[in-house]
Structures are given as structure tokens and as C-alpha cells.
Amino acid sequence: MALSRILWSALAVGASILLTTHYLNTRALAQSSNARSTTAGNPITGEGLPNPASIVTRNWGQLPAGRKWGTTAGIDIDPTDGNVWAYERCGAGTAGGGPVDCDNTPLDPIFKFDRRTGAVLANFGKGVMVTPHGIAVDRQGNVWVTDFAGNKNGTKGHQVHKFSPKGEKLMSLGVAGKPGNADGQFNQPNAVVVGPDGSIYVADGHDAQGMITAKAVAEGISRGATSRISKFSPDGKFIKSWGQIGVRHGEFRTPHALKFDSQGRLWVADRGNHRIEIFDQNGTYLESRYMFSRPSGIFIKGETVYVIDSESGPYNHPNWRDGVRIGPVGEDRVSGFIPPFDREDRVYQGTMGEGVAVDADGNVYAAEGPNSISQAGGAFTKYSLGR
Length: 387
Known about the structure:
- The chain is an alpha+beta fold and 387 residues long.
- It contains three helices and 24 strands.
- The chain is 13% helix and 30% strand.
- A four-stranded antiparallel beta sheet has the order 1-24-23-22, with no helix packed on it.
- The relative contact order is 0.13.
């Protein structure tokens, strides 16, 4: 009888412990889930997401005397001194094909700015390009720029140029003024990046983002339009291309920007398909990111990715707000958001720059394109860390 009472007592104590443990675990899980739901924020609108760089400096960078800022899409950080490389389109208010370009208004489009003061440290590139589009700085400090439009004479454009840090032209890829889809040719090259082994990658084809039906895609392909990545050896020899206009993985509708992560994977801003596609260095598709909206530019700093959306609007990507979305490289998740400028015809969605870069202190820079330059007040905007 005594033994029975002891057993029942032990069972009761054990049940109480199990119930208490279950309650505590359930409560902890509920609190954790509630914490996640209250801090996660909305990646579509940016609401509830922290802004890590809330101090806005419009019209950043010193403008040379007698010049007017034109549009841009490219900006990068020098790996040796941390200063800012960028370009503007020689006063042009458009992204190419307008009354002003760097061929008929021959100014030096490429700039190096002191990241703290905005002072001009270098300025070159006159007479080489028509409409610069993408810019990248390699580990040696060389500056690579894509020229995505051709001039009327068919003598410039549709190329990629490599400059020394002092402005000497070292290499050109593609055939000057001759768009094409043959190996080694370009038809509106958007972006360039140098890989870990020195290989050169070029994102080619800008028009496909406007092809919104299967018929339009078929017509684009038939007339020679491209949406692909081309790989070259460090000395400029063509190796391979992959991709075409389409919506499947490994296809693109305007591969607008390129960046490598710390694992040596190539990130492609597939703007027309509202996603990021990730590849190995041989062009094998690995995975995608969908939570960063309609990407125009990418910057990867450590294990954090910054993606800028300059184009989402009521008729091409409803509800998604323009801005810079920030998240971990290893997840399709947005953890921070830098909001856009207001724009009346993009109610609720606003407008933001096309290119993005982040300096050693975490300050964020935007390169303002045709959609945002009026609201930004100049070609570049700096978003500094909040105090």
C-alpha cells in the first residue's frame, strides 16, 4: 500500500513537471514567434523594417565647374582606399538614345570621389563611350565600364572598356558600334564584373524587360535581342555564354547588374523577371532570390546583400515599394530597408536610384537613373548611418 502511494506520488510529480515544461516551452515558442512577427516587417512595402542609413544627402559629390549632372546607373567602391567610383552620362537626362550623350557631348564621364567629402579625386573617359551603364572596380583598382548604346555613325558603343586607376584605357571587349549576338559581341551590355580568378563576366541585353508576352519574347529573339552572360579570360578571350530571353532559371529579361559573393558565386539582377539568379563561375544555376523586388543594382558587403529597386511602379510591379532592401546572403529574407523618394505618378511606391554601393563604414550610395534624378536632385545620393 505504501509502495502504491509512492508510485502514484512519483507519477503525479512527473506529470506536473511535464505539464510545466510543456507550458514553458509553448510560451517561449509563442513569444519567439510573436517577436519574429513584430520585427520581421513587410518586404513589399518596407513597413516595420529598420533603416540603418537614415541620414540622406541629396546631390552628393562635387560637380565640376560648368557641368550639369546627367543620369547614371553605376557606382562601386575602390578595394584599396575605400573611395567611390561612379560615372554620369555627360549631362544626359535619359538612359541613351536622347539628344545628349557622351559621344555628342564629349566630357569625362568617370569619376572617383572622396567618400568622406565628395571631392573629385579622378575624372576621365572622354571620347571613348556613348552611354556608360555598368561599372566595376577589380582587385587591382582597374575600372571597368560597359557602353550599352551605339552612336549614329556606328563607330562607338556596345563594348566593355577597362581603364587603369589613372584613366589609361587598357582593354576593350566587343566590336565598336556593332551590336550582335555572336560570340564575343554585345547588344546593349548592362554590367561587368571580374571574378575571383580574374575572368571577366558581362551581362548583355537591356530590352527584354519590356517583353511581357511570349509573342514579344519570340519576336525579340528572332531580331537578335539578347539576355545572357558572357565569360572571358583575364586577357579578354571569349570563353562561353549562357542564358537567353525567357523566364526559366538560367534565362533572363534584362540581366541588369552582377556581383560575386564570398563563396565565389555570381549574383545576377534579373530585373524583368523580378528576381536574383545565382550561378557558379561556369554558369550552372544554383538558386534564386525573390524577396528583393525588381532589382536594378546589387552590392555585397561581407555576408550582407544590398539590392536597389529603381523601377517598381503601379503598372509593372504593383504594390512593391522602391528602395534599398538589405538581407543576409544566405537567405531569401529582407532585414532592412532604405525608403525611396516620393514621386507623384508612383503613389505609395516612390522612386530610387539604379546602382548601389556600400563603403567601409556602412554608408550607402545610390546612382540616380532617369526615374529618380529629378527627385534626388543630382546623380548621386548618400545615405549615412543614423546617429
